[in-house]
Amino acid sequence: MALLPFLLEDALPLPGRDWLSLLTPAEEDSVRLRNAINQLANLQKDTSITFDKDQFQANIDVQQFTPEEITVKVEGDNTVIVEGKHEEKKDQHGYISRHFVRRYVLPQDCEVKKLQSKLSSDGVLSISAPKKPETPKQEYREIPIVRTGPLKKVEGGDTGKKS
Predict the structure, then answer these.
(1) One MF term in GO for this entry (predicted)?
(2) Is the pLDDT higher at 109 or at 23?
């Protein structure tokens, strides 16, 4: 009977019956613990972070949350906090509440003021910040000297105008 939870986990539920009710309490706890561990492992799969020459980008799967349940904040000079939270909701197994907080420390060369967040229709939140443009090395260039007429003031108040 110990293999039954693992064999039935991906199978369709029995018609009109909850298959977990067929298990002993210890086996039921084992199944629930295994599902919780799988969900934690999936959190790692549901997030990708990239740093390339142009920007920082984080993609987070937030399809379990509505846009109103998600917040993106900047803390300090370079920390982005993403939070998703919803209160208890009824689902096919009973009631569930979800809450997550992710913190990302942006690289020093990112422009935090230009941080953007976008939510796709399939529930992926993308957070991106462009990198600051590289400051060019100080270059010296020669400035040509242009010759002009005299700039000396003429004595006696004569400005060179004729009346």
Answers:
(1) unfolded protein binding
(2) 109
